[in-house]
Description:
nine-stranded mixed β-sheet; ATP Synthase, domain 1; mainly beta
Amino acid sequence: MAEMIVEIVSLEQAVWTGTARMVRVRTSEGDIGILPGHEAVAGILKPGDFAVDPVDGSRLEGTIDAGFVFVDNDRVTIVADNVELPGAAAA
């Protein structure tokens, strides 16, 4: 099954890193779903909810403050001022 590498980083620490099948974030252009093979994109994140469907484990859901999302070559990087991911251990 296709997968991508996802990194979620706040200003203070790495929050979560792993492989995933899907990422959903809210950008200044609207909500986007990112799947493996997604075209390269950079976007400005709006504060709100996000979700990650890891390859191993259950869905991660959290909230972020303003930040950026970068997608390229099956790699998704989320950089936000603040990230709240209940129940996830820091990477």
